[in-house]
Amino acid sequence: MSTPAVHKEPVLRIAKRDGLPHWKGWLIRVAAVVLALILSGAFIYAITRLNPVQVYEAMFEGAFGSSRRSWVTIRDAMMLLCIGIGLAPAFKMKFWNIGAEGQILVGGCMTAGLMLALGGTVPTPVLLVIMAIASLCAGAVWGMIPAVFKARWGTNETLFTLMMNYVAIQITSYCVALWENPYGSNVVGVINQSTKDGWFPELFGQAYGLNVLIVVVLTVGMYIYLKSSKQGYEIAVVGESQNTARYAGIRLSKVFIRTMAISGAICGLAGFIAVAGASHTISTSTAGGRGFTAIIVAWLAQFNTFVMVLISFLLVFLQKGAIQIASQFKLNDFASNVITGIILFCIIGSEFFIQYKLIFRGRKEAHHS
Predict the structure, then answer these.
(1) DSSP string covering 157-195, please?
(2) How many CB atoms lie within 10 A of CB 296?
(3) CA distance linking residue 154 with residue 1, whole number of Å
(4) TM spans, by residue (predicted)?
(5) Three-state secondary-structure class, residue 357
(6) Contacts of 267 (CB under 8 A, 6+ apart)
(7) Sign of the C-alpha dihedral, residues 276, 279, 282, 286?
(8) What gap in Å lies between CA 87 and CA 80, rounded to an integer?
(9) Among 83-87, 125-129, 164-168, 179-183, which is the least confidently predicted range?
(10) Would you list the DSSP string of 239-286?
(11) Confidence of residue 13 (pLDDT cuts 50, 70, 90)
């Protein structure tokens, strides 16, 4: 007579949380940051015998050590935040827009071209409006192309948007070659340097004040759009289940195209801010990889634009801090990047413990009636 098979309970199980209070989620995130600082401190001491507190002070100095450094940090954080805002509606819809780099570049090319063509002939306030509209339209078109193919033929949006980055890079290279300065360098050079036609004017006494104002308006506007509008509700439903969206009478093709037009337009506007509000030139490095970094911003914030502000500043702070400690303590870039990687790993890893819980053998999972 055979004995029945005994199913042994595993030592550890992973279960999805039904819901975690917001304060507990933030407590886990704070714990992750503290753990990251401890691990980074151990790494710093192991390779340099330096006091980790000194290194962290140097990181703060690199990001906020002077008024100019503080405003450059704010400028870069606003740029990253703008791109994250652009990606938020697409990612919430689970349309994986990996093409922000290309959308930034086409917006930047339109801005640079208009600065060269209309500088000196159109007043700067009018020129800024024209450039903003042109960059929005260019980014929207660049975003709509993969959406149309997805809606019509079911193409893979991840690969499609990624490949369009390379097309945008080649278009930018062509424009740079067409507009390059007399010295034949591989960048256009500072556009309208003597007249500053098409440059952002100072606001609040700061060169980057208008950058901040534009992105703050976008932050509030996108939060309201996703949380309170009918279109934001449709985006959420499509992201949760396309079958449910179809059952509710939502046209997926319309939502895909409309949402990607908005996503691409805001990324195109980021190109406008980068060219007219910061570098005043265009090159293939104008996006600078921020289109990919912004994916981390949008994902960690769970598409909440106000939380994106904190994450954008954190990532820019880590970048500036890594540069500072590399130069101040004669550490190579690899060491400073390891510190950044440890901090990012802990922060990203904390999201796992917010979404899931670990249940050890012998511990009963709580059931609520």
Answers:
(1) HHHHHHHHHHHHHHHHHHHHHHH--TT--SS--STTTTT
(2) 17
(3) 57
(4) 26-50, 70-91, 103-120, 126-147, 159-179, 207-226, 255-276, 296-318, 338-359
(5) strand
(6) 82, 83, 86, 87, 100, 103, 104, 107, 139, 143, 291
(7) negative
(8) 11
(9) 179-183
(10) HH-HHHHHHTT--HHHHHHHHHHHHHHHHHHHHHHHIIIIISS--TTS
(11) confident
- 183-223 pLDDT per residue, tens: 455 557 889 988 999 999 998 788 899 999 999 999 999 99
Query: Looking at the DSSP assignment, which residues form a beta bridge with residue 311?
Result: none
Query: Cβ neighbours of residue 38 under 8 Å, at least 6 residues apart?
Result: none
- Rounded to whole angstroms, how far apart are CA atoms 106 and 55? 39
- The answer to whether the beta carbons of residues 315 and 293 sit under 8 Å apart is yes
Give the bridge partners for 122, in sequence order.
119
| 323/339 Cα distance (integer angstroms) | 11
Q: How far apart are CA 270 and CA 151, in angstroms?
A: 26
Tell me how long the chain is: 369
Tokens 């938020």 belong to 88
Average pLDDT over residues 164-189: 81
* Residues in CB range of 355: below 8 A, 6 or more apart: 16, 17
Q: What per-residue confidence (pLDDT) applies to 187?
A: 59
Instruction: Decide if 318 contacts 37 (C-beta within 8 A).
Output: no
Binning pLDDT at 50, 70 and 90, where does residue 369 land?
Answer: very low
Cβ burial, residue 354 (10 Å; 0-12/13-18/19+): middle
Quote the DSSP letter at residue 97. -
Tokens 């079911």 locate to 154
Q: At what angle do helices 100-118 and 290-300 cross, to 10 degrees?
A: 130
Residue indicated by tokens 């060169």? 207
C-alpha 355/C-alpha 365 separation (Å) is 16
Residue 183's pLDDT is 46
State the Rg of the chain over Cα: 24
Locate tokens 């930034």: which residue?
A: 104
Which pLDDT does position 363 carry in this prediction? Answer: 59
Check residue 329 and report its DSSP letter. T
The burial of 54, by beta-carbon neighbours within 10 Å (0-12 exposed, 13-18 middle, 19 or more buried), is given as middle
**Helices first, then strands: H and E counts in the chain:** 13, 2
Which pLDDT score, from 0 to 100, does residue 5 have? Answer: 56
